[in-house]
Amino acid sequence: MADSHALPASGALPGAPTPPPPPPAPAAPAGPPVFAPLKGAQLVMGTVALSLATFMNVLDTSIANVSIPAIAGDMGVSPAQGTWVITSFAVANAISVPLTGWLTQRFGQVRLFTASVLLFVLASWLCGLAPNIATLIAFRVLQGLVAGPMIPLSQTLLLASYPRAKAGTAMAMWAMTVLVAPVAGPLLGGWITDNISWPWIFYINIPVGLLAAALTWSIYRSRDPGPRRVPLDVIGLVLLVLFVGAMQIMIDMGKELDWFESGEIILLAVVAVVSFMFFVAWELTDKHPIVEIRLFARRNFVAGTMALSIAYGLFFGNVVLLPLWLQQYMGYTATWAGLATAPVGILAIVLSPWVGKNVSRIDPRKLATVAFVGFAAVLWMRSHFNTQADFMTILIPTLLQGAAMAFFFIPLQAIVFSGLSPQQTPSAAGLSNFVRITAGAIGTSLFTTVWESRAALHHAQLTEVINTGNDTAMATLQQFMASGMSREQALASIDRLINQQAYTLAVTDLFYLSAALFFVLVGVIWLTRPTLGAAVDAGGAH
Length: 542
Prior knowledge:
542 residues, mainly alpha, 0% strand, globular, 70% helix, Growth Hormone, Chain: A
C-alpha cells in the first residue's frame, strides 16, 4: 500500500504552485553528418572515380619529366628553363595544400573536389594550347593551384565510402594508384612526345578528368556536409605566396642573371627573407593561422619533416635530372628515357603493402633507414655511370630504387605524426606536405643549376688537356678530318664529345653528392622518438 504522505514525483509540496519548467539544456554543437558506407555498384564506381582523379593528378608530376627537352626545343628555351614547367606546378601545388582545410569547410568537400577536377581539366587543356613558355608556366601554376585539394579529398571521400573495418583495404587501393602513376608517367610521356606531340601529355587529362568528375558528382553529391563560413588567414596567405614565389623565382633565374650580381636576384632574395620573417611572426600570433608553425616545436615533427623534405628534394631532383641527361647527352629518345626511368615504381608496388602492414609493429626509424640506405646505394651505383653505360646498366638502379621508395613515405609519415592529437593531424598533414612539395621544387631547380655549373667546370678542365701537345687529341682530330670533315667540323665534333663527357661527369658528381646526403639523413631520423602505432596520414604522398 502506497504511503499517503509520499511527495509527488515532482518533489513539490501538495497544494504548492507548480514551478516553471527548467530551461532546456543548450544543444550540443552538431558535428558533420555521418554517412553510411556505399555498397555494390556505387562503391565500385565511386572508388574508380576517386582513383582516376588521383591517378591523373599524380601522373602530371612525372609525365612531363621526359618531355622537357621537346618542350624546351619547341618553345625556343634551354632545357634548364624548360624545367620551370615542373617547378611552377610543384610550387603552386605546395601553396594550395594548406588551403585545403579552409576550402573544404567553405565550399563542401564534394563540391570542392568536383570543382578541382574540372578546373584541373581546364588548366590541362590550356597547357596544351600554350603558345610560349611564359604562358605554359602560367597555366601550370593554375594547374598546380587547383590540384592541391584533390589528393587529401580523394582520401577523405574514399574512407567515408567503406566500412571502418575495411579502411585499410581502401587505403591500400588508393596507395596502388599513387604508386602506379610514376611508372606510367615516363612511359606515357615518352611515347606521346615521340609519336604524337608534347601537348597531348596534357590533353589526355581531359577525358579522364571529365569522367572522374561526372562519376564523383553523381555518386557523392548527396553525401556532402555542405559549406559553412570560416575565417581565412588572408595576410598569412599573401605572405606565404610572396615568400615561396620569390624564393623559387630567385632559384630558377639565378644562373641566368649571374646570381647576386643582379639587382633582380637581390630584390627577390630580400622579398623572400622579409616576407618569410613576417609570415612566421604572423602565423605565431594569428587566431586562425593558415599553417600551424608551432608544430615545429615538436621533436618528431621537425626532425621527421626535415628528413622527409630534404630526401624528397634529393629524390625529385634526381628523377628530373636523369631523363634530361639521357636525352641530351646519351642519345636516348623520350620513349627510351621513359623506359629507363619508369620501373622505379615496380618494387614500390610490391613492397608497400608489407610496409603499411608492419609500420605499427616495427620501429619506423628502422624502416626509414632502409629507405635512405637504399637511395644512397642506388645513387652510388649511378655515380659510376659513364658515356659507355648501356641500357641495362641504367635500368638496374632505377628498378632497385623502387624498393627504397616503398620504405620512404609511410615510415617517415608515421614519425612526423607520432605524438600528435587527432585535432592536430590535419594541420600537421598540410604543413608537412607544403614543406615537402616546396623542397621538391627547390631540389629540381638546384639540381639543374648545379649540373650546368659543374659541367662548365669539367668542360674547362677537359679543354685544357686538348691542345697541340696532346697526341690523342691530335690523332682524333686527324681521324675526323680523314673521314671528310673540315678542320672546323672536326673541332666541333670534338667539342660535342667534350660536352658529353663534361655533362656526364657533372651528373655523376650530383649522384655521388646525393648518396652522401642520404647517409647523413639517416642520422637525422634517429634524432626522433616515435611511438609504435602512430597514425599515418598518406595525404599528399605523391
